[in-house]
Amino acid sequence: MLKNDLILRAARGEKTERTPVWLMRQAGRILPEYRAIRNRLSGFKELVETPELAAEVTIQPVDILGVDAAIIFSDILVIPEAMGLTYEMVEKKGPHFPKTVEKISDIDSLKVADPSDLSYVYEAIKITKKELNERVPLIGFAGAPWTIFSYMIEGGGSKTFSKARKLLYSNPEMADKLLNMITDSTIGYLKNQIKAGADIIQIFDSWAGVLPPEHYSQFSLKYISKICQAITEVPITVFAKGAWWALPEMVNLDCRTIGLDWNMDVATAKNVLKDKTLQGNLDPCALYGSNELIKIETKKMLKGFQGHPHIANLGHGVYPDTDPNKVKYFIESVKELSTS
After folding, report:
1. Region 148-159: what's the mean pLDDT?
2. Mutual orientation of helices 145-154 and 222-230 as an angle, nearest 10°?
3. Is the pLDDT of residue 340 over 80?
C-alpha cells in the first residue's frame, strides 16, 4: 500500500489534501549526486543500461528534493535501439544516430522491438520499487511514436525536423509503416514496465509542436490513441509539447492526464479538458529567479488550476543548470501553498 498516493488519486480526478508535485527530468544533471555517479561511467548509455545505478539515480530526487513520485531513469531512444537502430549520446550535443531511416528497405531491416531486448529497464523498475518501499509511486514512460520517428529519420535533434516532416508529404505510406512499428514496440514496452511495477505511465511527445494540426492528427495523435487504448492497467499522462491547438482532440484520448507546457493557456485547457486531470505548467525559467519570485509564480500557477484536478510540474523538463535549491524551494512552495 503506497504511503503517498497523491499523484495517483489526482490522476483519477479524486480530491487530494494538497497538490502533488514532481518534475520532468528531475533525475539527472541538476543533482551533484547524479553527476558523481555519471562521472564514474563511460557515458549516459552505461547508466541507462545498468539497472542498479539507474534505480539509484531514480530515487535521488525523492530523497533530496521531496517530490511526490519517482520517474524511472531511462531514455525514450531505447525503443529505436531495440528495433535495430542504434543511437549514441554525444556529450553536450544530445542524441545521434550513425545510421538513419531513409528508404523503405531501411524499415524492412528493422523489427518490432521484443520486450526482452529492454529487460534492463524492467530490472531497474523492480529494483527501484523495492528500494522505494511504497513511499511514492513510480512513473514509467516512453516517447510518442512521432517523436521517436523524428529522431530515426533526422538522426538527432533539429530545429525544424524537416527531413521527418518531408517524409509525411513525400511518402506517407512509408511513414505509416514505421510509425506502426514504433507504436507496437512501445505498447509491448509499456506493458512490461507496468508488469515490473510502474504505477503510472507518461507519453512524451517532445516534437509535437513542429507539425501542422492536420498532420499532428494523422501522424501523431492517431498512434498515441492506439497506445492509450492498449494500456488499461494504470493511469496514462500524455504530454505533447507545443500542441496547444490539439487540446480539443485530446478530449477523446483514453488517458487520465494531459500535460501542459508553459505556453498553454490554463483557463482554455480547463474549459476544454473538463474530465481530464491537468499537469504542469510553470515556466522552467522561473526557477532561475529569486525564492520570492518562485513563490509568486507558483502561487499564480496553483490559482490558475484551482477547482480542477491538478498535478504540479514544470511546463517542460528542468534545465540542467538550474540550482537544485531553487527546485527544492519550488516543490516546498507547492506543498505549502496548496495545503491550506
Report:
1. 95
2. 130
3. no
Residues with catalytic roles: 25, 29, 38, 75, 151
| Pairing assessment for the beta strands 88-90 and 200-205 based on DSSP bridges | unpaired
- Strand ranges, E, within 91-185: 94-96, 138-143
d(CA 50, CA 91): 19
Strands (DSSP E) contained in the chain are 70-71, 88-90, 94-96, 138-143, 200-205, 236-240, 257-259, 277-282, 310-314
Answer for the pair 148, 76: CB distance below 8 angstroms, yes or no. Answer: yes
- What confidence tier does 97 reach under pLDDT thresholds 50, 70, 90? very high
Q: Which amino acid is at 160?
A: T
Neighbouring CB atoms inside 10 A of 180's CB total 15
pTM: 0.97
**CATH no. for 6-339:** 3.20.20.210
- CA atoms 31, 35, 37, 43: torsion sign: positive
- How far is the C-alpha of 196 from the C-alpha of 6, rounded, in Å? 21
Grid cell listed for 295: 513563490
What is the overall mean pLDDT for the chain? 97
Find the helix packing angle between 145-154 and 172-196, rounded to 10°.
120
CB-based contacts of 45-50 (< 8 A; 24+ apart in sequence) = 45/75, 45/88, 45/89, 47/73, 48/73, 48/74, 48/75, 48/78, 48/120, 49/120, 50/120
Up-side HSE of residue 26: CA atoms within 13 Å toward CB? 31
- Backbone torsion region of residue 307, taken as left when φ is above 0, otherwise alpha when ψ lies between -120 and 50, otherwise beta: left
Q: Which of 329, 321, 324 is nearest to 294 (CA)?
A: 329
- Sorted by where each begins, the domain ranges of the chain are 6-339
Burial zone of 78 (CB within 10 Å; 0-12 exposed, 13-18 middle, 19+ buried): buried
Q: What is the mean pLDDT of residues 266-277?
A: 97
CA distance 169 to 136: 45
Would the pLDDT of 135 be above 80? yes
Helices of type H across 218-290: 222-230, 247-250, 266-272
